[in-house]
User: Fold this.
Amino acid sequence: KIQAQAEEVLAGVSEANSPDGATAIAMDPDSGAILAMASWPPVDPKNLDDASPEDLYNMATGFTYEPGSTFKAFTVAGALEDGVVTPDTVFDLPPTIQVADREIEESHPRGPQAMSVKEILKVSSNVGAVTVGRELNGGDYFGSRFDRWVRRFGFGKPTGIDFPGEEQGIVPRPADYSGSTMGNLPIGQGLSVTPLQMMAGYAAIANGGVLKTPHIVESVDGQPTPTAAEGKRVISKRSAREMRRMFQGVLEPGGTASVEIEGYELAGKTGTSQKVVDGTYSESQYVASFVGFAPVEDPEFLMAVIVDNPKSGNYYGGTIAAPAFGEIASFALQYLGVNPE
Assistant:
């Protein structure tokens, strides 16, 4: 039922925005169980003989993209766990920040402003995320601490889901960093991920800090499948709880998304990333995304919506992907019997 709802909502998103593709993935963050994995355009499972390889492409596991601002979660989580920042740590942020030959700007111009870490996530400040990334690397733009956290959350390798053809993305090694690399990575540029990797990383935040292997098959002949394992702890319960509460601010007034489901407290993060076309960042092609979960204190439902190259003129994750999350989550929370708060 959740799969059907996800496919229906994706069809509506695609009709309105004419993207190159879209996917919606739902997961139980505690177990890693996949509840829905929808791709658009769809393929008729009753008529696979005439389907091309492109028709059978599963965007959830095979699409690699620069995640943009949804990746700021892992920049902040690493800094939080390493004791470099707290949610209330305040930075005096200039309007832009220079990293080697690159000037990092905000999505919307602003003047100099003091922001706490939770405010940096709430308004999705690029300058703030780069500043946190620098602190994580010991006050410098070089170093391996940031890379350690990226890989600790599972990026740069397949998740191990029981589904064929999974991609692994690309994460540069510190030895290959240029002067401007740490101006890119903390804001989700300069590396590629899959939607499923993002789900696994966010599940670790939602479930209290444990990275688990996503799985579709729970058991065979009563025996749990190898992918339905316990997982490994990547951050503390406290850090995960603080991250969840900061994500709640994204959906509050002044945040980058506006989604409400009566009776439930929601949290999540928006992403709007430029696509790389012919080696340069496009000014007209974007990936809009949103990853969210509910309830905030003890999440039972996690979902990502990723829309590739919408052509309606609207390309922000907060206005394309987040409402789709709201539609699917509203149905799923009730269907799963998640008690209102």
